[in-house]
Design brief:
five-stranded antiparallel beta sheet, membrane, DUF58 domain-containing protein, alpha+beta, 3 domains
Length: 317
Amino acid sequence: MLATFRRLQDWAERRLPALTRYKRPESLPIVLHRRRVYIVPTGFGAAFTVLLLVMLLGSLNYANNAALLLTCLLGAASVASMLIAFRSLHGLRLNAVRQGHAIAGEPLTFQLVFQGGDHAHPSMHAQIGDQLALFAASAGETLVSLDLPTTERGWHPLPRMKLWSNWPLGMFHAWSWIHPDHAVLIWPRPETGGPPPVLPGDDEQRHRLHQGEDIVALRDYRPGDPMRHIAWKSSARHHNLLVKDFEQPESQEEWRLDWRQLSQLATEARIARLARWLSEAEAVGRPSSLWVPGEEIGLGHGRSHYVRCMNALAQLP
């Protein structure tokens, strides 16, 4: 029964332009109004309708007023449920799409920001392919998370999504299509292994040292120590001058990653190697810079720097 219904629905969508009018990408916000909400009886609803017809014929044939009243009440309830199913979608508003970050081959999680408007929208379903998310939208913002499968790096448009509901009695299936004009950026997949980056020589100052601010200990004065480091108060209690010994942080290598240094590799291999170097630098907090065609990102570290560099690699042609 379900497979037959889906084949019939697919045929109708190909034949009737009104059913496909709102499947093309459209800018945000997207509001579901009465012209884009469709509703049909479910299998249970069709069987219930047949049952009501049998009850109606039986009550008229036997002139049973009580049975006729029950039939009318059940019919009125089914008609009311059709209106409620329509209202569960009518007025729903998609305000924004928020995306996360993902490497090619991993699912990308993005969020749909819905707003209910002047009434609540209970028991709603958002569907992409076989993936389904259940939510209820109120007058405020409601976030719905979905996963998008990815295969390649770069910009990928969001697919069309189906919003539907069988609420409240499951006798009617109301649905609508939304296709936001929005694309998500997928990061390249780093290579699994390879050589470390080629670092410049010591004459180019590949290490950056700085004087620490925390005092580790006091030691005896040695010729050449700065006068401002002498601990005068502590020296007054000793026979020798004492000097403040400050903490010296370890040196950090600066990884200056350059697209031009990997000319022997193919384009995708270059991108994969640079992505691996960036991931390794991010894992240990190592400062890094990146040069790619059309963009140069200066020395930096941290999550925001890593995101900027990976975005630059993902957008390469």
